[in-house]
Task: structure prediction
Amino acid sequence: MEFEVERIEDLTPEALQELRERGASRLKLRLAESDEQALSTAARMGFVVVSRTLEVDLDVLARDLERRPRGPSAGSLHVQTDDLPAVERGVRRFVPQLAGRSQGSVIVPPRSGWTSVYDELADRDPSALRRIARELSDSLGVVVVGFGIEEGAVARYLVFDRGRMLDEYLSVQEYYGPLPSGEVVALAANPTLVERLTGANRRAVREAAVHGVSPDELPPPAETIAALARAMGIEGAEHGYAGAADEPGAIVIER
Result:
């Protein structure tokens, strides 16, 4: 018999004993996809994803159906640490918990103080790049920079420090639809902050973080990502999971 709860806080030894007395053998927990802390806690408690409920505004769906991807997505994560074993432990612990079933990860030893992580799911689902970056930054207490090429059309970077996202850039801010003016500004890149967190050249970041109202107005996103990575002194951002295993010293984690 199955029972269902909606809050992790309700899971107490007394509550579990009561459920057993009522004949329960399994328990379902409903959580919002946006509640990453609760999702992480639930995974550590042994919960696994068995289904997902999705919803969308019809206007948003119509816009997305009209938009056609220009190519594949790809992403990479760069952790500001030389502690390769700690990064590997974090990847092995967290990535299998993600919905979407990652087929594998690759970890590349430190280059210029940055340990790189590539994941098959992060290439296939750009939102996974954000989740992995946040988790690694939070668990290791360090800066993590994520670079992404999305739908072969736009370039994005994410900068986390100790689990908090401090800066984000998207080359076409309203590529996925109209945004409030404040959110458009938030996706414009903050070269001063990037310089402080990564040691980047502020001017080079500003020049590389190009913007347009359409991908047609901009260089290919791979070129933008390469320029941003050079400005931050980060190697290996020009590709995603595919090809990462060929990097010198790469640690391949198959699933």
